[in-house]
User: What shape does this take?
Amino acid sequence: MEIILKSFDLIFSFDDSLYEIIFLSLKVSILALLISIFLGMPISALLAIKEFFFKKTLKIFFNSMMALPPVFVGLFLYILFSKSGPLGFFEILYTPIIMVIAQVIIILPIIVSITTDKLESIFNEYKELFHILEANDFDKILSVLWDARFSMLTCIVAGLGRALSEVGAIIIVGGNIIHYTRVMTTTIALETSRGNLTLAMSLGIILIFIALILNSSALILKFIAVKASYE
Amino acid sequence: MNKKFIINLENINLSISNKLFFKNLSIKFSNKGLSVILGPNGSGKTLLTKVINGMLKVDSGKISFKNKRIKIGYSPQKIVFLRRTVFENLLYPMKIKRYKNKKAIERVNFLLNEFKIYDKKYVSARSLSGGLAQYVSFIRSIIIDPNILILDEPCSNLDNDFKKKIEKYLMKEKKSKKIILVTHDIFQAKRLADEIIMLNEGKLIESSQKESFINSSNHLVKRFLCNNIL
Assistant: This one.
C-alpha cells in the first residue's frame, strides 16, 4: 500500500525524468502505430478485396506472425543491425529508430489480421453494390476503409496497447539507455530488478491509466457510431 | 442485333451449385417502355435481373445490348446501404461515375426534394425503416439517370404515397427509358406495363404486350392471374 501511495506522489510531483520516459514511450509507440496503419491498411484492403494466388498463404502468414515472440524480433534485429551484421552500416542499434522498427514488426501483423477480417465482411456486404456501379479497385478500397473506420478503432487500440506494453524486443535493440532509449516498460523491468519499486509502480499505474483511456475512447466512439447506425 | 430490342438474351443456361435454373432461356426486351416480369416465388425473376446486369455469369448463351455505352440503374430486392447518411448513399454512384461534385450534389438535392424526403438527408441510411430504405434504394437506382432501369420489387414494403410517387415517375420515364420491373402485384403490372414476361421454374411462359398477356390462353398464365387476383 505504501508503495502505491508513494507512486501516486511521484506521478503528481511531475518529475521531469519520469515524464521524459512516458513521452518517449508514447512517441515510439505512436510512431510505430502510425507506420503500421500506413503499411497495414493497404495490405488488409488488398487481402480483403482482391483474389490472388498467395492470398490464403499471406493471411496465414500474418495470423501466425501475431504470435511472434518479441524477444525473437529483438534478437533478429540485433543480429541484422549490430556492427558486424549485414545492415550494421545504418548504425541505428540502440536508437529510438530501431525501437520503432521492432514495434512495427510486432504490431503490423495484429493490424493486418484483425482489420482484414473486418474489411472482408464489409466488402462481401457491398460486393453487389460495387458490381452494379462498376466501381474500380481503388474506389472499393477507399469505400471499405472509410466505412470500416469505427470498427477498426478497436484494432488500432489493440495495436497501440501491444506497442506500449512491449518490452522483450526494445530492451534488446534499444539498450535501455537513460535519456535516450529508456521507455516505460524497460524502466519497470530495470527498476524492479534494482528494488526501486516506487518508480516501477508509478510507471505501471500510468500504463494502466493510458490503456483505460484508450479503450474507453474506442468504446465511446464505437457506441456513438452504433447509435448513429453507421455500424 | 435487331435494333428494335435493347436487350437480347439468347439460349441462356445458368446453374448455381449444380442446380440448373435457366435452360436455353431466350428473351428480348423492346427498346423503350416498361416490361414487367411476373412469376411465382422461385421462378427465377431475381436471377434474370442479375443475369441482365451482369452480376451473375451464365454458363452459356449470349446477352447483348443495343448500345455499348449503356447505363444500368438497379434497385435490388435485398437492399444494401453504405454505412453513411442518405445523402452520401445517393451521392456515391455519381462519385463512382466521376460526375462533377457540384452537379452531383445538385442532382441529389433535386431528387430528395422531388421525392419529398429532404428531411431524411442526414439520417443514417442503415437506420431507415424497410419502406423508406426501399424508397431511397429506388432513388439511388435513378440517380445517374440510367437508360435501363431494373427494379426488383421496389414497392413491396411501400405505403401508398411512396408507391404512387414511384409509379408516377415510372409512367413518365418509360417513354424515354427501358424499365424492367419485377413485381408480384398484378394490379401494378396492369397499371404500368407495356409488355409482360412470365417465368415459371426458370422457363419463359409468356412474353407479350399487356393486353395479349391478360387475354392469354396459356393455362399457367391464367392460373397465375386467378391466384393473384383472387
